């Protein structure tokens, strides 16, 4: 019972953070102040608080603006729902261990927020927000020190992750990778440490390969042929964060 109540609360927290993510992403791209109230992206009328409740308002308004009937993007409820579910996932992930710290749960929820933000932003605009990647790198580095992570592993990871993409950037004069990937690589190193970073990079290429094959085979008109690489990097980072050690264990048992 206690766990259910906590779970529901954490889910609502996730929804609210998802809603915040949608708002922040749009404001950062449009270079609007963070202090302004939410407005319809079409008719620019203020959105009333009861039309701005995560998921429910979207369903209630049938995905349309109350004032101008413009369609509201599916991105809004999807991001909210996914964030809610991921926050609950973090909670249960830690509850499966005998000992855990609240700080770890809060940190991982923040990491998920940042990774989701980078994912949505890169997917939509083919751009990486420096504010998110570089700003959060410092924050997560400090939190990780409190949690007893090795500063050496994080710094080495950041140098390898950033350097890996910097090298490709220089060699291809910016054709193979974007400058944003360098900063995502840096952030990945801080989050994962050097060992898991290598796994995450490898995973990103595997996921990217599969999705590219799928896109080529399906070759649907109107479908984006290119998906920003940063989206694969964020997904790979998420998987590695929670399952990286199990994947490595499984892999080494397979070889030896
Ligand atoms: Zn409108």
What's the total number of strands? 0
> Structural class of the secondary structure composition?
mainly alpha
Report the span from N to C terminus: 44 Å
The average pLDDT is 91
User: What does the radius of gyration come to?
Assistant: 20 Å
Low-confidence segments, given as residue ranges, are none
What can you see in these coordinates?
With 256 residues, the protein is an all-alpha fold. It has 2 domains: 1-100, no CATH class; 103-256, no CATH class. 72% of the residues lie in helices and 0% in strands. The chain contains 8 helices and no strands. The chain has helices at residues 2-30, 56-60, 75-95, 102-125, 130-146, 151-171, 179-218, 229-255. Helix 1 runs parallel beside helix 4. The longest helix is centred in the last third of the chain and has 40 residues, at 179-218. The radius of gyration is 20 Å and the shape is globular. The N and C termini lie far apart (44 Å). The mean pLDDT is 91. The structure holds zinc ion. Residues 40, 42-43, 45, 65, 67-68, 70 line the site of zinc ion. Zinc ion binds at residues 40, 42-43, 45, 65, 67-68, 70.
From the structure above, extract its key features:
256 residues, 8 helices, binds zinc ion
Short synopsis of the structure:
By secondary structure, the protein is mostly helical.
Ordered list of secondary-structure elements with their pairings:
Blueprint: H1 2-30, H2 56-60, H3 75-95, H4 102-125, H5 130-146, H6 151-171, H7 179-218, H8 229-255
Helix pairs in contact: 1-3, 1-4, 3-4, 4-5, 4-8, 5-7, 6-7, 7-8
């Amino acid at each position: 019972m206690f766990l259910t109540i906590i779970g529901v609360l954490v889910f609502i927290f996730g929804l609210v953070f998802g809603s915040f993510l949608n708002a922040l992403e749009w404001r950062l791209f449009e270079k609007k102040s963070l202090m302004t109230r939410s407005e319809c992206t079409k008719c620019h009328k203020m959105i009333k608080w009861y039309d701005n409740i995560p998921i429910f308002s979207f369903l209630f308004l049938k995905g349309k603006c109350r004032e101008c009937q413009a369609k509201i993007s599916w991105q809004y409820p999807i991001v909210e729902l996914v964030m809610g579910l991921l926050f609950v996932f973090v909670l249960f992930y830690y509850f499966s261990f005998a000992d855990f710290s609240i700080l770890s749960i809060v940190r991982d929820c923040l990491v998920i927020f940042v990774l989701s933000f980078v994912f949505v932003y890169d997917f939509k605009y083919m751009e990486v927000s420096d504010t998110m990647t570089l700003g959060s790198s410092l924050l997560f580095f400090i939190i990780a020190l409190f949690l007893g992570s090795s500063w050496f592993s994080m710094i080495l990871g950041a140098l390898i992750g950033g350097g890996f993409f910097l090298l490709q950037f220089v060699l291809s004069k910016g054709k193979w990778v974007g400058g944003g990937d360098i900063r995502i690589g840096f952030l990945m190193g801080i989050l994962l440490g050097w060992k898991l970073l290598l796994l995450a990079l490898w995973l990103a290429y595997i996921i990217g390969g599969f999705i590219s094959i799928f896109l080529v085979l399906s070759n649907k008109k109107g479908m984006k042929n290119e998906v920003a690489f940063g989206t694969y990097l964020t997904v790979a980072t998420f998987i590695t964060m929670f399952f990286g050690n199990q994947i490595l264990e499984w892999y080494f048992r397979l070889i030896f």
